[in-house]
């Protein structure tokens, strides 16, 4: 774990309620792909956010903050960042980081849980461009997806990478997958034995996915997600 002050480079809205934040550490911060950092609001108030950056991008730190006004916890962090030129952070934390393995990987993201899987995806493709990876990203509606062009580009560049967006409440214009994101995984994989699965999203989704994935042969040591430290 390291602590440092970061210059706030920019804050960019990528949807009406999700913001991409780029930070420049004033001294190096050590982390692994899939870990999170703490934004220091005060001495006793430090709030966690997944690092969306890969390790090889260590000169900058990227966060994706879902900051709807109804989510006071995250919205207060966004307000602080918008008012300041720099911020104190510490990291990396968490045990759900990318493992070095020859096993194929499945990444499952709900909402801004995508930031966690995005870091793992970039690092895995950087370390092994022929890695067998499937990313499932679920959202409530199709307008919630961001970085679609980036993901489509990665998919075209890496023939062993597959991206599957899943919309929970789709309108007639959506031609892709619908329903719960983890159910799409179950539909595509008759067995999860021999896979590594990385997951981020609401606790309810993570818990249900764990139960259903275990029933499909996934082992406990092959499932990674920060939620599982709490549920």
From TrEMBL:
<dbReference type="GO" id="GO:0008218">
    <property type="term" value="P:bioluminescence"/>
</dbReference>
<dbReference type="InterPro" id="IPR017927">
    <property type="entry name" value="FAD-bd_FR_type"/>
</dbReference>
<dbReference type="InterPro" id="IPR039261">
    <property type="entry name" value="FNR_nucleotide-bd"/>
</dbReference>
<dbReference type="InterPro" id="IPR001433">
    <property type="entry name" value="OxRdtase_FAD/NAD-bd"/>
</dbReference>
<feature type="domain" description="FAD-binding FR-type">
    <location>
        <begin position="1"/>
        <end position="99"/>
    </location>
</feature>
<dbReference type="Pfam" id="PF00175">
    <property type="entry name" value="NAD_binding_1"/>
</dbReference>
<protein>
    <submittedName>
        <fullName>NAD(P)H-flavin reductase</fullName>
        <ecNumber>1.16.1.3</ecNumber>
        <ecNumber>1.5.1.41</ecNumber>
    </submittedName>
</protein>
<dbReference type="InterPro" id="IPR050415">
    <property type="entry name" value="MRET"/>
</dbReference>
<dbReference type="GO" id="GO:0052875">
    <property type="term" value="F:riboflavin reductase [NAD(P)H] activity"/>
</dbReference>
<keyword id="KW-0560">Oxidoreductase</keyword>
<comment type="similarity">
    <text>Belongs to the Fre/LuxG FAD/NAD(P) flavoprotein oxidoreductase family.</text>
</comment>
<dbReference type="InterPro" id="IPR017938">
    <property type="entry name" value="Riboflavin_synthase-like_b-brl"/>
</dbReference>
<keyword id="KW-0455">Luminescence</keyword>
């Amino acid at each position: 774990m390291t602590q440092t002050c970061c210059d706030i480079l920019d804050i960019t809205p990528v949807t009406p309620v999700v913001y991409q934040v780029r930070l420049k550490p004033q001294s190096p911060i050590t982390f692994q792909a899939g870990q999170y950092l703490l934004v220091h609001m005060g001495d006793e108030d430090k709030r966690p956010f997944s690092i969306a950056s890969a390790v090889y991008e260590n000169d900058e730190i990227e966060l994706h903050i879902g900051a709807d006004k109804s989510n006071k916890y995250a919205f207060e962090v966004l307000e602080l960042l918008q008012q300041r030129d720099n911020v104190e952070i510490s990291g990396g934390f968490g045990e759900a980081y990318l493992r070095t393995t020859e096993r194929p990987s499945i990444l499952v993201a709900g909402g801004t849980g995508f930031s966690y899987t995005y870091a793992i995806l970039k690092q895995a493709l950087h370390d092994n461009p022929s890695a067998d990876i499937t990313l499932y990203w679920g959202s409530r509606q199709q307008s919630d997806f961001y970085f679609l062009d980036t993901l489509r580009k990665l998919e075209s560049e890496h023939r062993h990478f597959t991206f599957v967006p899943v919309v929970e409440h789709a309108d007639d214009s959506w031609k892709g997958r619908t329903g719960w994101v983890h159910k799409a995984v179950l539909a595509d994989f008759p067995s999860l034995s021999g896979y590594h699965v990385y997951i981020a999203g609401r606790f309810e989704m993570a818990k249900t996915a764990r139960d259903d994935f275990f029933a499909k042969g996934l082992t406990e040591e092959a499932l990674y997600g920060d939620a599982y430290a709490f549920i």
